[in-house]
Amino acid sequence: MKRLLPHPGLSAMLLIVWLLMANTITVGGVVLGGIFALILPKFTQPFWPDRPRMRFGRAFLGYLAIVLFDIVVANFQVAWLILFRRNRDLRARWLVVPVDLSTPEAITMLAGTISLTPGTVSSDVSADGRYLLIHALDVADEAAEVARIKSRYEARLQRIFA
Amino acid sequence: MSVIADIAVTILLILGAGFALIGSWGLVRLPSTMERLHGPTKATTLGLGALLIASVVYFQARLGIWTAHELLISLFLFVTAPISANMIAKVHLHRRRTHAAGEPESIAGPPPRPSEAGDWATFEVPIDRPSPTYEGRDIE
After folding, report:
1. Where are the transmembrane segments (chain B) (predicted)?
2. Would the CB atoms of A121 and B85 count as touching at under 8 Å?
3. What CATH number is given to the structural domain containing A86?
4. Nearest residue to B21 (alpha-carbon basis) of B1, B39, B45
5. Residue A42: left (phi > 0), alpha (psi -120 to 50), or beta?
């Protein structure tokens, strides 16, 4: 099984994306997508020399739901800031978030999440990979914001990349 | 049924267009590069999301077709948007460090160092993998 499907997550994603591109579910489409989902992970296997184990279970779905919810809520907050806050009253800050995640894939997902949730943009990672540099548009309490990112996103990612 | 769908599509279109407009307005009025980055990256998430849902609802209600291309658009956007924002931020940090002309500083001031020993990846090249573009050039 492992030799046939070296990367089951990638195979599932390829099949789903292929069917979405075709925009219809036909037997031919499923077969062709299935062939790609079988062949492509085999050929690209050398690209992931030590890829992390990911769990696509309840923790992953919960993470997606929380991120989508935060995107909607925070969009309204940033729209409010843009419309009604004067520039000199903006409390823009640089935040340095210490990262406990170890794999590059997990850190990339955390950085991407931070950029997608409005009001924060991840700008850089430290050379040793242990800190993230984040620019926040308006924060009242820097320590609380860092703690929020760590408990809300990083703790959940640690469970997914366990 | 059709009327309800029309109302839903209209509300979603106005919401999406409104967020795109606010994002663009943020790009114009915020003070410097790093703050301006927040405006357009926001419009792409909720603004575009509302427009894409409007598209799904329209095709279903009017033409009776289920479309899924919109899901793919949002998927690709969610993957690419943070990377382009990160690239712009890195260029900004690098241009500030090299005192490039015309690069305004963020109202948050200069970025803090991550720790006593290290620096951000934009400024520091790992010793075992020297980058050829940095050789013989003064970064500070």
Report:
1. 6-28, 40-59, 71-89
2. yes
3. 3.30.70
4. B39
5. alpha
pLDDT tens for residues B46-70? Answer: 888 899 999 988 888 888 887 888 8
What is the domain partition of chain B in residue ranges?
2-134
Q: pLDDT tens-digit profile of A38-53?
A: 888 888 877 877 777 7
In a domain, A2, yes or no: no
Least confident of B26-30, B74-78, B115-119, B135-139: B135-139
> Measured between CB atoms, does B72 come within 8 Å of chain A?
yes
pLDDT confidence of residue B133 = 52
Is A136 exposed, middle or buried, given 0-12, 13-18 or 19+ CB atoms closer than 10 A? buried
SS3 content of chain B, % helix, strand, coil (to 5): 65, 0, 35
Report the number of distinct structural domains present in chain A: 2
Residue of A nearest to B89 (CA): A123
For the cut 90, the answer to whether the pLDDT of residue A8 exceeds it is: no
